[in-house]
Amino acid sequence: MAFASLKQNFQDWITQQWVILFGKKIRPADYQWLLGPFGKTNGIGIKFIEQLAEIENLKIDNKQVDKGLLQSINQFNLSKEESKRLNKNVIDFYENTSNYDFELVVKWNPIFKLFGGLLKILFSNRIQQLNIPTGFNKNSEALQSEIINLVDDITKEVKRTIWLRTFKNSGQVVYSGVYEVCKIPNGVNCIKAIFPLPHGNATVILNPKVGKNGELILNSSGKKIGDAGFYFLLNDAKGNLWTKFIRSFKDKLVVSSENKKVTAIQTLTLYNLRVLQFTYNIKKKSDFRVI
Questions:
Q1: Which of 96, 143, 158, 178 has its CA 20 to 30 A from that of 21?
Q2: Residue 145, burial from CB neighbour count under 10 angstroms (0-12, 13-18, 19+)
Q3: Which element (helix H / strand E) includes 94?
Q4: Sign of dihedral through CA atoms 273, 281, 89, 158?
Q5: In this predicted model, what pLDDT tens digit does every residue of 237-287 receive, in sequence order?
């Protein structure tokens, strides 16, 4: 029987051992579409960005203008009909994410709010990841959004794109994730969000579609390993790679635009029950400037 590394916090060991017990041991060569950076035990958040740049011998590019989660929307390989229908403001948001400001409203299902509180106590505050508000305040909170590229210092090619989101008031990290496009085994191009965890990561793969009103719909509603969906990955104490596909947990993101304003509504469900919903009100930074 395989075991998770003992040199870490006990709660991390427990969750990793669960992945080993109920997950699948895989060969990295067979799962290139799923692989992504792992975190260390001494902090995730901002520390992870510095660690990843050092490990992969890359340079941190902190320039905050005209930088997107995608180099081009064409990376999705949408059909001609979908590409033509996709709202131009949504395209600009994905290609120039750094040019936008965000306000976040979080709405919990009361059934799962206790789970959110436990997540913060046991994991979020310590590893600087997934700091989701659990209070009753329905007002929006301003986010500091940074697109950080890790580039090859010689070729200047972007090798990693990291989206770091923190609360402006507290500086707490909400999400720190690596974003890239991957081609899943059925040949569909998806967006992959990789959230580093100690000795592993949580990876969400979302399948892009374009709605009838030009909205971009990203969905992780797969049924098996190889589909879009939510995955845990980790290395055990001997360096073997394991994954667990969480079929019951789904993530749906709808990004739309009206009157030049972009709105993103993200809904997380467990066994078809809504766990929580994020509403992002997104505006171009230029819209806030006084001329």
A1: 178
A2: buried
A3: helix 88-95
A4: negative
A5: 999 999 999 999 999 999 999 988 999 999 999 999 999 999 999 999 875
